[in-house]
Amino acid sequence: MRVKRGVTSHAKHKKIRKATKGFTHSNRVSVKRGRQAVTKSLQFATRDRRNKKRSFRQIWNARINAGARLNGTTYSKLIAGLKAANVILDRKILAELAVNEPKSFTAVVKAAKK
Predict the structure, then answer these.
(1) Residues of the chain with pLDDT > 90: what percent?
(2) What is the pTM of this model?
(3) Closest by alpha carbon to 80, among 42, 52, 111?
(4) Domains located in the chain, CATH noted
């Protein structure tokens, strides 16, 4: 009795086709091109997760700098003052305070100036 091998191949192909949903026509229809496209898309996803962290830190720094300049100081002086005063606030929280809670941010700046 011969062994038919289509079941596992079809399962692999279905897996690739499911992963290529939303891709262009040739990448979606052809299994070989689809496999290449999925591999490349996973590489891009890994790279861009790292880049997203970089982008957010740039945005936070710009917001902190804008808030600091409204309070008569600069970003670098503010961060140095916070470290000297042992105020432990990360840049995400500082940016949030600068945008949404200007009075609280002013209090943080005053603590850094001491």
Answers:
(1) 95
(2) 0.77
(3) 111
(4) 6-113 (1.10.1900.20)
One-letter amino acid identity for 79? I
pLDDT digits (tens, 9 = 90+) for 8-17: 999 999 999 9
- Rounded Cα distance between 76 and 64, Å, is 10
Q: What share of the chain is helix, strand, coil (3-state, %, to 5)?
A: 80, 0, 20
Handedness of CA 10, 15, 20, 21 (dihedral sign): positive
Task: Give me the long-range contacts of 100-107 (CB less than 8 A, separation at least 24).
Answer: 102/67, 102/70, 105/67, 105/71, 106/71
Among candidate residues 83, 90, 91, the one with its CA nearest the CA of residue 112: 83
- Give CA angle at 56 (101, 66), nearest 5°: 45
Evaluated on CA atoms 99, 104, 110, 113, the torsion sign reads negative
d(CA 114, CA 109): 9
d(CA 66, CA 64) in angstroms, rounded, equals 5
